[in-house]
Amino acid sequence: MQVMKKRVAALLLTGATLVSGFGGVLAYDETKAQQQAEALTAMGLFLGTDQGYELNRAPSRMDSLIMLLRMTGQEQDARFYQGSHPFTDAPSWDPASAYLAYAYDKGLTRGVDATHFAPSTPASAQDYVTFMLRALGYSGESVYIQWDTLGKQVGLLPSGVNAKNFLRGDVVMVSYAALDCRMKDSTTTLEEKLMQDKVFSSFAKATADLKAGAVVSKDSSLPLIMAYVYQNVSEYLTPDRLNATQITKDNMAFFLGVDTLKIDEGFAVEPMMTSQAHSVCLVRLSEGEDVEAAKAAILKNVNPYKWICVGVERDHVQVKNIGNLILLVMDNHHDDALVKNFQSLPLDAKGAVRVGDTIVEKHTLDAKSLSNFAQKLNTLQTTYMENNQVYYSVIPDKSYYVKDRFSSYLDHEAMMKTLSPLVSEKIKPISLADQLSIGDYYRTDLHWRQESLDGVIARMGDTMGFSVDWKKFIPQTSQDFIGSYRRVLDSLSPESFTYLTSTYTDATQVSLYGQSQPTSVYDTSKLSSKDPYTVFLSELSPLTVLKNPNAEQSRRLILFSDSFGTSFAPLLLEAYSEITLVDLRFMASSLLPEYVNFKDADVLFLYSAQIANNSHLLR
């Protein structure tokens, strides 16, 4: 490995004794430090012991010296150094003595006296930050004295680092921050410098970014997507064991079996040294290229025995795609795991994933958001609705209905179990989970299908005391609907789209906030727009009022909802002569008395699970 060439004098440490007190309490973010430790490990910059990363242990002088060697790209030279050192207390493990000899001869550090290095003595924040400043090219005795001021100026001291109780977790956070710091008198960062000097590869860097929480989607860089494909597949398929190569016109035939593909970029990963045949390639076809034809050509022509002595059986050669992104996997043992990871690749930054023939989004249940959601409902009820009948319902996320095939689903049962004791008893719950299934949602959109809500309406009516005759609806169907997920995947096939009309919807006038002229319940001109779901009530609005002079009785409903409510409200026009739809994402709660008349009205909070799980959106 080529190592960084730096002037030794610039790395000379002061001979000050590395002893400091360790009072105080743990301050760094343990979860973040763990992620960053894993990221640094992926780049070969940080290693644990047989006790793990030991993030809550104070770093030793030896720990700090090794980190300096790694962060300057000199570890490989030091590991095999043949020189000697004067220290009688060098650790016995290999290659500790070689590290010390290299650092001593190169002037990177000194002992506490002529014959002692004191490798186990704790290193302070001052000592370690000084090391990192030296790695960035800062020199002179003043660096040790001004470590705090200079460290903050260059970005070495992120929030959470505890200089008084400096632990290995703090070492991780300082080291990770150092990668983004610019070299002295340069626009190049330390990370860029280490990559230029081949201390770690773009694949290792992408693996590190993924472990540190980088958001990945089909539109991410190929190294980051490749890191996602390899995650948790095998302990033997890691960046330090694999070689990453850009696929170009010159080597395309070797990796893919063909050299005629028009690609924007390509990336291949194969082992540095192994007796097993293994190859994984990613290419992004140029716009307008025939994806299926390209896949067929690769599958037909790629040589799974190109290694001559070993090969991959044909049934373990797989070619898959997501849009114009094509994956080739050749591996006798791990092909299914690699393909499975690829097929779970989020389609956009929000985490959209194809599961079977539908698209869902990745979620993590947020208990804090649910608590805030319940508090919001309780406050609104107490402030404005003391004399009203108030109900609430949470619409299950569509991912809940594919939970047997998708581990990152939004758990509706857990959500309602959390909300139930938090929401006031004055707000009656209405459960909808058993009235819906995955088929009641669009394949290409997150919303439910209006024509599938007969069970939902019946459940609502039973609880709220109204009835709707489902037979009075007339379905109007189009076959060319592609929902909001068209933005994340170009190859989505159209599906049917149905809206339900009746004499009640025909007679209703819709008033949107800020518009002087009323509109109709359904705006069919939106069927050909980029957001065809806005057929329902024309567009999202902070305040929408539906008035039906032909309702069976004079009855009013205040419906607090999100975009799901726009397809739901028209179904209630037989039972309610006036429905006021309020979207608190766009309207502050404090404005309610000015715009909404609560007198003698039923009140329903109907929100999608995504809103309950991101309740900060409600104003």
Please describe the structure with a list of short key phrases separated by commas or semicolons.
alpha/beta; globular; 7-stranded mixed beta sheet; disordered N terminus; 3 domains; 29% helix; 619 residues; 5-stranded antiparallel beta sheet
The count of β-strands is 16
Largest sheet: 7 strands, mixed
Structure class:
alpha/beta
Count of alpha/pi helices: 21
Structure characterization notes:
29% of the residues lie in helices and 15% in strands. The two termini are 56 Å apart. It folds into three domains: 189 residues, no CATH class; 144 residues, no CATH class; 251 residues, no CATH class. With 619 residues, it is an alpha/beta fold. A hairpin with a 2-residue loop joins strand 6 and strand 7. It contains 21 helices and 16 strands. The protein has a seven-stranded mixed β-sheet. Strands 1-2-3-5-4 form a five-stranded antiparallel β-sheet, with helices on both faces. A two-stranded antiparallel ribbon has the order 6-7.
Describe the structure in brief.
With 619 residues, the protein is α/β, with parallel strands linked by helices.
How is the secondary structure organized here?
Layout: H1 30-42, H2 61-71, H3 75-79, H4 96-105, H5 125-135, H6 142-145, H7 147-154, H8 168-179, H9 190-196, H10 202-211, H11 222-230, E1 242-246, H12 252-256, E2 263-271, E3 278-285, H13 291-301, E4 317-322, E5 325-331, H14 335-343, E6 352-355, E7 358-361, H15 367-384, E8 390-395, H16 412-419, E9 427-429, H17 454-464, E10 474-481, E11 495-501, H18 503-507, E12 509-512, E13 543-547, E14 556-561, H19 564-568, E15 578-582, H20 592-595, E16 602-608, H21 609-612
Parallel strand pairs: 8-9, 8-16, 14-15, 14-16
Antiparallel strand pairs: 1-2, 2-3, 3-5, 4-5, 6-7, 10-11, 12-13, 13-15
